[in-house]
Amino acid sequence: MRFVIIGGDAAGMSAASRAGRLRRDMEIIVFEQTHDVSYSACGMPYNIGDPEASMESLVVRRAEDFREKQGIDLRTGHRVDMIDRGKHIISGEKENGEPFECGYDKLLIATGASSIVPEVPGITNDGVYFLKDLRDGRMIRNYLETGSVKKAVILGMGYIALEMADALRKRGVHVTMVKPRKRLLPWLNEELSHVIVDELEKNGVELYPGHSVDTIEKTGSGLTVVCDDRSFECQLVIPAVGVKPNSGIAAAAGLDLDDFGAISVDRRGRTNDPDIYAAGDCADAFSVVTGSKVWVPLALHANRSGRVAGENICGMDTTLKGIACSAVFKVFELEVARAGINPAEARAAGFDPLEVVIASRSRAHGHPGNKTIHVAMTGDKKTGRLLGVQMAGAEGVAHRIHSFAVALHNSMSAEDFWQADLAYAPPFGPVWDPLLTAAGQLLRKSE
Amino acid sequence: MRFVIIGGDAAGMSAASRAGRLRRDMEIIVFEQTHDVSYSACGMPYNIGDPEASMESLVVRRAEDFREKQGIDLRTGHRVDMIDRGKHIISGEKENGEPFECGYDKLLIATGASSIVPEVPGITNDGVYFLKDLRDGRMIRNYLETGSVKKAVILGMGYIALEMADALRKRGVHVTMVKPRKRLLPWLNEELSHVIVDELEKNGVELYPGHSVDTIEKTGSGLTVVCDDRSFECQLVIPAVGVKPNSGIAAAAGLDLDDFGAISVDRRGRTNDPDIYAAGDCADAFSVVTGSKVWVPLALHANRSGRVAGENICGMDTTLKGIACSAVFKVFELEVARAGINPAEARAAGFDPLEVVIASRSRAHGHPGNKTIHVAMTGDKKTGRLLGVQMAGAEGVAHRIHSFAVALHNSMSAEDFWQADLAYAPPFGPVWDPLLTAAGQLLRKSE
Fold this sequence. Notes:
Two copies of one chain form a homodimer. By secondary structure, chain A is an alpha/beta fold. Chain A has helices spanning 10-22, 44-48, 63-70, 134-145, 159-170, 190-202, 248-252, 299-313, 343-348, 400-409, 414-418, 434-446; strands at 2-6, 27-32, 73-76, 78-84, 89-94, 99-103, 106-109, 113-115, 151-155, 174-179, 206-209, 213-219, 222-227, 231-234, 236-239, 243-245, 276-278, 285-286, 293-294, 327-331, 334-340, 353-361, 372-380, 386-393. Chain A is built from twelve helices and 24 strands. In chain A, strand 9 (151-155), helix 5 (159-170) and strand 10 form a beta-alpha-beta unit. The radius of gyration of chain A is 23 Å and the shape is globular. The first copy, chain A, starts with a strand and ends with a helix.
């Protein structure tokens, strides 16, 4: 049996590795259009912010390792353009322009996501860099190392935009962030949003929300980002307005997409074609909160869904329980995390949301070095069930979110979560953990 | 209705506060033998280690605040010696020697725990200090501030012993730790135990396990701790060999105790007398893992069980879901945490335990500042259910344990936990969180 995988990053290589271990008799061929496989894409902004780092330190395993140590037929520099479902053949082009094709018994699409390219004149100018794969990361690092970048403009204010603002400030670059909408991270509770804005401004990031970019002009000294009522001179522009699933070849082959444009898969990672699976950022998932389909392109689910697809292709029967939409990022000294859904999403999903917003502490009463932890927690008024949480603070946020994610996986009520026996010691939190305090307030508010 | 509370610390004052808010018509009287109520007892070792701190910073709320702001009749300097269940009267002695008595409709016993006093000649000598309440903490601070303490001997190697070793080293005191048994923290996996021993030795703590103390002699320069084959000169001895529940008056009144000597309570916090409740360190609890009674004197459960007892006394019907035996402490740069039970406890409880021990990382591949996180995870072979975990590492341990505690509250299997959507970002962990990796290995080991 031949198992063909399109895309050799997190999901693709997880599937290949798992299948290779489960069925040594199986022929596994992976087609990857770049030459980078298995690297920490999420590490790129942090890497760029560190003058001492090398982009190559993000490589977890090289293509040769997969070939030599795991016996996986990994073909880099191969771009797949078409799936012929009738003939069970995929075809594409090598980087030298030569066409290729390959038959499959089972196919996994793990083509990932790509940066959304804003429709702005000048977006293809020199000095405009997207950050999606390791090639992009290397280019930005190299450009910064020329020493010619004094000012940068970032388009967008999402995770990657914020991480890049932090990275560029660490490299001494002046940063302006521009986005059309007024609100930074619109999914975030407004009070918490202000905490992030304060942190950005404290670190010298210039924010320019509520304005759209008309054009990016090439000038003598570099670039000019022209907005409706102001212009910004700079040497570097990073568009980071979001990503979209690479589902084009799936759609062309008649596979079902969801409302997000991602490839629709069942809990086993299978598309509407029983011989074709999809995993990672190109595919969707089930929310453990709503039970509905969601599309959240993040690393852990990419790895896990790839692995599970590999297992099912090998004849195991593994179901994906779904995702809690957990995420965390660091911006300067602030940790920001979320899990589940916010009140607006809850209403849209038919819940009757109740939200509490509290400020608690990161250490016990009287313990030095105490920092504020902000928590916005949402529950369902009718059932008492927890629906989501958002947190921001200078310490103790990143791993606390895990406990709430596990609570969501178990559909816990605020009442039951309030009773959770979380570990306490003075350097690590108050006796009543911030999440327990928030759950307690949610309980009282619903009484 | 009159609600009388014996003991004005975490459990007692939580009950009083909650009842006071729920039923303004209720007469609430609290008898506390010391003058300290509502303070961070767990903060004392950390406070002692900080030359700049004041012990008074650990006071969360003063007796006057409870009296004036919450209208609670809080009688400090009152030691309760007897409960007459037939007459519904408690009696005792004020600090001036005057006797007192007080009738009750409902009674809460929240007498806490006290240090075990080792049967060693000289244990009452000057320079021997126990650390249990704020008076003890003040005395140790004052003694250290005389500058005469150069060397200290700690008897025991549990949480408090380790925290005190850390604190005294921070104050420049030479520390020797002596205990009869060979193993430090016998409940801890042996590999993890070595990690702690290394940390102690790296920080100049002298360990002398496997030896018992024969006597503590008073000498010209201070004290000599005489062991079977060696003696230690010092100016300070801290016995920290454990605590025991203060259940004497309960036992004398014919209330049921459990095998640990703690007051036996049901899930509503009630003893075998329907008018008498017990909460906090003097009472027991149900384990969410085994369903059996456990006695774990820790702050969060003390607060929560006091609060729940207060609710039930006010006519609400709140049940305690039980504890996961979660705990965390810091010793020098190391965070050590646990939740649930270890393989030996699992076997004793009738499970068929399976353990994996792994070393993972605190940050993503290629992210600077990576530290090792050691994990020992136990599951049940028959059912796949998770039973317990222990972790040690220089960062990222303290709050990670929370997610596992929540998993235990939900009786999750390793398989389900492996699917938990934990938040990932490079500064905070690998893509596969150390706990997910351990759960995955547990799964494979049980296949």
